[in-house]
């Protein structure tokens, strides 16, 4: 069984007040300063219109839904099934979102840690293949840190509605939503915490 105490500890760390987090290194954060979910609004939790919230199990349709995915100037139709059983961060973004693009180096480093990441360009961003393709062909950060992106998404945006970009959805190896965060997250240190917790949980399952 998954270690619930460990998971809640990770969730608490992810969902604590963003301003307080930005002012302190993780090593200085005390347990009594953590608050589970207090800093996320109901919209960020995805509580309206059948959307998902932190702690929810993904429906099987999440893995079966087909998406148009852009990579290296080409598009293919794929499901997210290859990400099942792995740690995954969905990164809702737009080409005009400077804060989103600034996180590209971090996303690249997360993949080096065997954590899957995938950009999601929703219909709400009002962009299409042409805008995204031009961006990845000409933007210096995109050329240095190439990414894959879902295009014209409407399914995932309904599951995880957002008000601002970037918007990150963290999914664990069990297919559960473990966090929904903003620009201040993810960070390498917090991802290390999540990865360590997941590895311990998997090790216990294998005993």
Characterization of the model:
This protein is α/β, with parallel strands linked by helices. It has a domain at 40-183: 3-Layer(aba) Sandwich (Glutaredoxin), CATH 3.40.30. It is globular, with a radius of gyration of 17 Å. Strands 2-1-5-4-3-6-7 form a seven-stranded mixed sheet. α1 runs antiparallel to α10. A hairpin with a 5-residue loop joins β6 (167-171) and β7 (177-181). Helices cover 38% and strands 18% of the residues. The longest helix is centred in the C-terminal third of the chain and has 18 residues, at 188-205. It has helices at residues 4-15, 18-22, 42-45, 60-64, 98-102, 104-112, 129-138, 140-144, 155-159, 188-205; strands spanning 67-71, 74-78, 88-92, 116-122, 149-153, 167-171, 177-181.
Features of the shown structure:
207 residues; alpha/beta; Glutaredoxin; 7-stranded mixed sheet; 10 helices; globular; disordered N terminus
Give the fraction of residues assigned to helices: 25-40%
Mean pLDDT: 79
Please tell me the CATH architecture of the domain at 40-183 by its name: 3-Layer(aba) Sandwich
What shape does the CA trace take? Answer: globular
CATH superfamily caption of the domain at 40-183? Glutaredoxin
- Residue windows where pLDDT falls under 50 for at least 5 positions: 1-48
Widest β-sheet, arrangement of strands: 2-1-5-4-3-6-7
Distance between the termini: 11 Å
Name the helix and strand elements from N-terminus to C-terminus, one letter apiece: HHHHEEEHHEHHEHEEH
Tally of strands: 7
CATH level-3 fold name of the domain at 40-183: Glutaredoxin
Query: Main beta sheet: strand number and arrangement?
Result: 7 strands, mixed
Tell me the radius of gyration.
17 Å
Total helical elements:
10
> What is the CATH class name of the domain at 40-183?
Alpha Beta
